[in-house]
Amino acid sequence: MTLRRYLQLDVFADRPGAGNPLGVVLNADGLDSAAMQAFAAWTNLSETIFLLPPVEGADYRVRIFTPRQELAFAGHPSVGAAWAAIDAGLATPREGALVQDCAAGLLPVKVAGTGPRALVSVRAPRSQRIEVADLADPAAVEAALAAVTAPLPLGGRPPALWDNGARWWVLELSDAAAVRSLSPDLPAIATLSRACNAVGLAVYATADASDHQLAVRAFCPADNIPEDPVTGSVNASIGAQLAASGGLPGGGSRYVASQGRELGRDGRVEVALDDDGEIWIGGRVQAVIRGRADW
User: Fold this and answer.
1) How far apart are CA 109 and CA 81, in angstroms?
2) Residues 198-234 as b or e (16 or more Cβ within 10 Å = b)
3) CB-CB contact of 162 with 130 (8 Å)
4) Beta pairing, strands 254-259 & 214-220
5) Closest Cα partner for 245 from 148, 153, 162?
6) Measured distance CA(259)–CA(256) in Å, rounded
């Protein structure tokens, strides 16, 4: 057994207990993929990350696991990884910038401020819309999607499957009240997720609130997580869908999304569209647990 430095963070959180929990193994050298997957299953958090020495051109390397699978990219693990690397002295921003190495490639990171008030933003891999016809069994996917969406009060944009290193179904609902009150069919979502190798399904709608412009929820029962508190990859794909079909809320280049309220973990994700058409997701990070893990 090897003692390894371990953190548990709340990401997209302005205080401990908000946002999305993240497990962080700081010195993951010597752990193979099976050991990482087993540890992520043991934590049973939506994601656990493992920090490793970087390749040339990057400041740190991260591998990202759900309890079921490794992901090429995920948002709250990427924001948390940058914060943890800085906090542990493994990386130092240069003029507020870092480069993350992950399975999705080299991703730029921006850091404004320090400690729990620091705003950490990562440029998400470009979201690609996946056509059902291109999947292995389109008929099964169509049937599973119909079972999920039939009872939902959908908005104006049709359901779509997006992939930015994590594959999610994205559904616009009629209004924020529909998002907040939704009791989804989790077995149907799990079936849909497995049919197209998706992490899960997310719903969203515009919100008339002073501190956020979008209400978001994400469900991933196939990974044994009924509802994810706050999901960066989902918010990046929603931002990409909005940018491609009418523009961001308010007509500008940035907005704030609220996610996790229904779980008592109301988080905030800052979403921005840059001049190159890329989506950035950002938020604040709170350290809750600092310790050692035997694994």
Assistant:
1) 10
2) bbbbbbbbbbeeeebbbbbbbbbbbbebebbbbbbbb
3) yes
4) parallel
5) 162
6) 10
Are the C-beta atoms of 164 and 126 separated by less than 8 Å? yes
Six token digits for residue 74 = 């995920």
Q: Which two tokens stand for residue 278?
A: 């890329």
Q: Which residues are catalytic?
A: 47
Per-residue pLDDT tens listing for the chain (295 residues) = 688 999 999 999 999 999 999 999 999 999 999 999 999 999 999 999 999 999 999 999 999 999 989 999 999 999 999 999 999 999 999 999 999 999 999 999 999 998 889 999 999 999 999 999 999 999 999 999 999 999 999 999 999 999 999 999 999 999 999 999 999 999 999 999 999 999 999 999 999 999 999 999 999 999 889 999 999 999 999 999 999 998 899 889 999 999 999 999 999 999 999 999 999 999 999 999 999 999 8
Tokens of 88: 């542990």
Whether the CB-CB separation of 262 and 180 falls below 8 Å is answered with yes
Q: Helices 232-244 and 75-87, interaxial angle, to 10°? A: 130
> Which residue has tokens 């918010």?
235
> In three state form, how does the secondary structure of the chain look?
CCEEEEEEEEECCCCCCCCEEEEEECCCCCCCHHHHHHHHHHHCCCCEEEEECCCCCCCEEEEEECCCCEECCCHHHHHHHHHHHHHCCCCCCECCEEEEEECCEEEEEEEECCHHHCEEEEECCCCEEECHHHCCCHHHHHHHHHHHHCCCCECCCCCEEEECCCEEEEEEECCHHHHHHCCCCHHHHHHHHHHCCCCEEEEEEECCCCCCCEEEEEEEHHHCEEEECCCHHHHHHHHHHHHHCCCCHHHCCEEEEEECHHHCCCEEEEEEECCCCCEEEEECEEEEEEEEEEC
